[in-house]
Amino acid sequence: MSTAIVPTAHFDLEPMSEPGKEQLLELAMGPQHPSTHGVFRMNVVLYGEQVVRLKPVFGYLHRNHEKIAESETYLGSMPYTDRLDYMCSITNNWAYALAVEKLAGIEVPERAEYLRVITGELTRLQNHACLIGFLMQDMGSSGTPLMYAFREREKILDLFESLTGARMMCNYMRFGGCRADLPAGWLDQARKVVADFPRFLDEYEQLLVSNEILMDRTQEVGVLSRELAVSAGISGPMARASGVDYDIRKVDHYSIYDRFTFRVPLGSHGDVYDRFMVRLLEMRESVSILEQAMRDIPAGPIVDPRMKVRGFRPKPGEAYGRIESPKGELGFYLVSDGSPNPYRYRVRPPSLINLTVLEDLCVGRNVGDIVAILGSIDIVLGEVDR
Amino acid sequence: MNLEAIKSEVEANVPGCRLEMVANPSPSDQHSLRSDAEHAVAVAIVLRDAANLRFDFCSNVTGIDWPSREVSEKVKVKKLVDGVEQEADEIRKTVVPGCLEVVYHLFSVEKKHGPLVLRMRTQDRDAGVHLPSLTPVWRSAELQEREVFDLFGVVFDGHPDLRRLLMWPGFVDHPMRRDYVDPDDYEYEPTAHDEVPRRAQQHRGDAGGKQLSEAEGG
Q1: What pTM was computed for the model?
Q2: What gap in Å lies between CA B57 and CA B48, rounded to an integer?
Q3: Tens digits of per-residue pLDDT, A322-368?
Q4: B3-65+100-177 classified as CATH 3.30.160.70
């Protein structure tokens, strides 16, 4: 049986005057550091270049999203979920819509499910491509990989803009369906973007996968064991890179993912390189899902016609809905007391929970590896701090 | 897996534990188990380690605040009116004491089942806000229990590093409680047509406080 895996105790940054500790350097990395992907701080104790202790400091972007949502109607929080993980607004909408649909027992029409899968997988493509770009940028590969990724992301954001009216803050889902149907010519444009995507992936792989500097800096760095990954609630590509075969699209059978054939890439080392490779391979599977979904999409309504938009009051009760977002398991826990506002509204943020093991991954490595490890976890501070 | 079966399995392994099934009337069909605080760690270990349960993945930890509320019900009482016994309605008010509730959503990576909703309740909302920490059982509770401590004020005994997570160390209140009141000592935009300048002035008080000029909207 697995034993308890307990974190180390807290420490404060203060001058270390105790004898024997003169060799230790305490360093506050962040909050204003370009490699922390936002306002995130790590208090690090270094021995030379080696990390001895590390404690993350949260809350610089905290605005109590949950409290605000409890004073809003159910639908009123939908645009605000965009601002959680602002790279992937559509999957945030999806997780919230799914939780409310479970709470109120709402059915989603078939065409809307296809629209959700198509937009959701496009979101995953652009998130993973950009994350790899950011990771390379953090490790000093200045510009090229990130700009390649942004070139592709731009095409996907153009699709989002013509469908939802916004590039990043899409606010696309509604309870029981989606907000807008596809404009004329959208599917053809999307098919072209998706058909071109494998060429970009080939190019990306050729540029990065067997790059000697990249391998040197990422292999055997930040190794996360399978046991710790499960115990610490690590989800998404980060867990799968450690060999945890857990993809919520396969486990929960939510939406219509059962209809598509796709594989779940797994890593075996759990290091930064595996996390990078799992994301690269996941993009190939997303392309395959997108091709199948855009081939099969039926005509029909995009929202449940019985769904009441105004005066929406779910019966008292509670529901936990979760999806496989690009970052990991994104869940919403809602408690209703029968009023138009949720009594309790909780976001299960994958970015925050994946940071639980940051210290375990960094201790013993060099200070330069912190940046690579943090980059491979894939955080967005809008979601970490909420 | 059947919740009844899980309950009896845990009860067989943890002698003396008091588990209670909590029904969920919503269509989501996610019913929960409420454990007593005393045996919660033992219950959690059985849930994690029993061969047919294996809830090894603690996904979500959160709190719910239930302030004390007044329930009024109509009861029929017999009264003597002018020497004749008559039936009359009387409204009887009872106060349901408040508490803080902590909710854990458990899944199994190995068996691919879940969610199992595990709940615990504190005695009250003032002094008896102590609950045992489940971080030694599931490491994923580490940051989330810190968040519940920060925003709800539940004290988790046995947590290795219980500090505020999102608010700053000197902050005193717990913002996610239902009766939390915003502080009014914020900086304000000097516009004449809202409550902000008046409240800011009130906060500064009369003694030594600068009076707002008309230009500032006071």
Answers
A1: 0.87
A2: 8
A3: 999 999 999 999 999 988 999 999 999 999 999 999 988 998 889 88
A4: no
